[in-house]
């Protein structure tokens, strides 16, 4: 703590000594004012230096992160390029299978191959341009139709794993969504459910029109009941909801049957 340097001398006379005393007191006051002002400037300067130093460190961190992202972008582009070549070949073979398929089942499988290759090619294009904004293409379409296509994609895989599909489609109302991204969300949930049901089980897929805070939305629910060697069963429930209003959005939400029986209807 700095000592106060200001000291006023009492003027006891009006002669030359008194005038000199008053002049000394005025000079002392001015010096004290200048000292306080300089201290304030010094404090402000220190605070400004700290602020600028913090901003510089923050900017430096962003530059380092940008360099990392640039390096990651180059690696990602190389990987995407390596994947795209065999993927193109798979797509070509899938289209050839479509032409030579002799049964309805073979035609269905070849259609799935071509559709999934097309989806993967779209993902690769997004990966190639991940440093830029990925364009979102919204369209108004029934969620149920999209969910049906997603379920069809996994029907053969479910059959191989001894998984029964219980599909209950309750609404055909259209919503505004990006079909590619929305379908990807549904397929991810179905794929995760199948991965859990290693010993078979039941996959429940439903669509329904619901309301939340007086706002209507279409919900697509993906649930499963997995069998275990011990005879026990594990149930889980996930949902993707789509606003029916003018603003397009969708989000994934997870529910546990034990915690929310109302959400897990049909899984008992």
From TrEMBL:
Compartments reported by the entry = Cell membrane
One Gene Ontology cellular component annotation? Answer: plasma membrane
State the species of origin: Candidatus Sulfobium mesophilum
Assigned EC number = 2.7.13.3
Q: Which residues form the Histidine kinase domain?
A: 78-268
Q: Which UniProt keywords apply?
A: ATP-binding, Cell membrane, Kinase, Membrane, Nucleotide-binding, Phosphoprotein, Transferase, Transmembrane, Transmembrane helix, Two-component regulatory system
Record InterPro entries: HAMP_dom (IPR003660), HATPase_C_sf (IPR036890), His_kinase_dom (IPR005467), HisK_dim/P_dom (IPR003661), HisK_dim/P_sf (IPR036097), HssS/ArlS-like (IPR050398)
Describe the reaction catalysed, as an equation.
ATP + protein L-histidine = ADP + protein N-phospho-L-histidine
Q: Which Pfam families match?
A: HisKA
Name of the protein in its database record: histidine kinase
What topology does the record note for this protein and the membrane? Multi-pass membrane protein
